[in-house]
Amino acid sequence: MxxxxxxxxxxxxxxxxxxxxxxxxVHNGRIGVALASLAVGAAVVSALCGLYLDISIKMSExxxxxxxxxxxxxxxxxxxxxxxxxxxxxxxxxxxTAALQEIPAERLVGASPFLHGLARLDLGNAVIVGxxxxxxxxxxxxxxVEGTWVGVSFDTRNAMVGRxxxxxxxxxxxxxxxxxxxxLARRAEVTIRGIVDTGGREDDQLFVxxxxxxxxxxxxxxxxxxMASVVAEGAEADALAAAVSAADPxxxxxxxxxxxxxxxxxxxxxxxxxxVVAATILVITTLCVNATLTAMxxxxxxxxxxxxxxxxxxxxxxxxxxxxxxxxxxxxxxxGLILGYGLAQILGQAVFGSWVAFRPVVVPVTLGVSxxxxxxxxxxxxxxxxxxAPARVxxxx
Amino acid sequence: MDAQMDAQMDAESADAxxxxxxxxxxxxxxxxxxxxxxxxxxxxxxxRFGAVTALDAVDMExxxxxxxxxxxxxxxxxxxxxxxxxxxxxxxxxxxVLDGIDTSRVTENERVVIRRRKIGLVFxxxxxxxxxxxxxxxxxxxxxxxxxxxxxxxxxxxxVGLADRASHLPSQLSGGExxxxxxxxxxxxxxxxxxxxEPTGNLDxxxxxxxxxxxxxxxxRGRTIVLVTHNxxxxxxxxxxxxxxxxxxxx
Lengths: 397, 251
Known about the structure:
Helix content of chain A: 55-70%
Shape of chain A: elongated
Number of strands of chain B: 10
CATH class of the domain at 64-90 and 108-250 in chain B: Alpha Beta
Oligomer: heterodimer
Distance between the termini of chain A: 33 Å
Structural class of chain B: alpha/beta
Structural class of chain A: alpha+beta
Number of helices of chain A: 13
CATH architecture of the domain at 64-90 and 108-250 in chain B: 3-Layer(aba) Sandwich
């Protein structure tokens, strides 16, 4: 038996690994909770990280589409000189659309001409607005619509009506309404396809195809202005405005600053919100891992006491528990990364309607953040393990 | 100093196999000739817990190769004395020289090193790690001493008659078998002193006898053994009985 004279053959690493793995396997029920919380934490962190990296451009496009941010309108008469048109309302549609060509197609989210006028409906007067329905939808994706959007750009038979006007005029989806000019000289009939709720002035307007509005108002092929949603900021937007203005002396293009500036703010707020969610999840993960490790240390106190009695120093105990925590963390984070990638896809599809690309940088970020959370969680339990008094626990006190 | 040397050796050990600890007298092997020196020497050892004096100026010597039983009623200070002898507790006053090392002059880390190199512990509750099998439990003591060596651990297991139980978990072993694994573990690092705390307290008569025979056989081969018991029959099997009463020694 003991007392052999030959040097021992073996490695410390193999016994360390055996001790770690067996300890983790035997306590699998207890560490399951920690593992699950680490996995969920890592999933949320990696999903938000992926979204943050991949979606911010798309998100900025989406936000820009929340309302027009560019307007092409006629130059005021007194500044326009001879080329100011014919003195009638708005400009010929052809000149406005020609000027719109100055905005590269890949920068243009959507655009619609607008022609406003007062008309007589069956039960009273109302503002009618001639639009390009497809363009209007691209400009106003956030509108709440009862019924359906009119799908064809210049639909001459269908219309959409604002909620308030619909209530006043007793209009419902599927109803037909007659529109006449105030002299009752021109008329058109349209069917209501959708009732819109915007909370703005649109709630009192009737939207019809531009052609219908032009015919009723006697303003064929004219528009007051074109509203557009453009992917460009600051100087870039100014350059586009200058290009539009230069294309036709009667047309002026300008970005609508208020919305563009808000984009950045909203993005910052969403980034902040994601950071808060990630931080909250990490705090919960930390508490969960802490609770598990604390319970594990309490349960293993006799084992820790024995190891100390056999000659394990504090460093060995600290090493063992931190190694166990690290292994837990790596396993949990691996599962969490896979989960998180799936979660990012679900969120990407649900919120932005696009897939999220895999970004390798998400892996070290998630691992680093999770490891930091787990190691912070381990500080107090490990300190507890180091303080285990072998004399006490070995006697079952 | 011995302990410092050991500590240094320990720090340098890293992953390389170490030669066995043979720096000081080694009671293992050879005949139990006249002891060359005391393994334990206590002088005026006192341990107070607040106002309570658990040990009161205890003097005691245990020579190398001796088998001493510490006996006394409950509350006499047996456990406190055992903790101090095992370096799991420190005295309030007095000195404890273990195998030539004055333990009152060493740091906490050095105490750990001395414990792993010079003391083998046998517990009443065995204290085997439940998820390690018999041979791995012995290898754990090797691991904290230097490096684990399965062949040597298997030899130790064979030495207590459990070679065929190597891969059994503690839960698959009887109480007597667990205690024999515990004894093999206590011996594996060739300690100067084996401390056995009520080693048969949880065993039936047959196993009690087996374990005592084993301890006596070890003593016959020159091992120094300190047995704590309240059982007079077991005490009678030691070379000498050291009695404790109200924290005072009475050799």
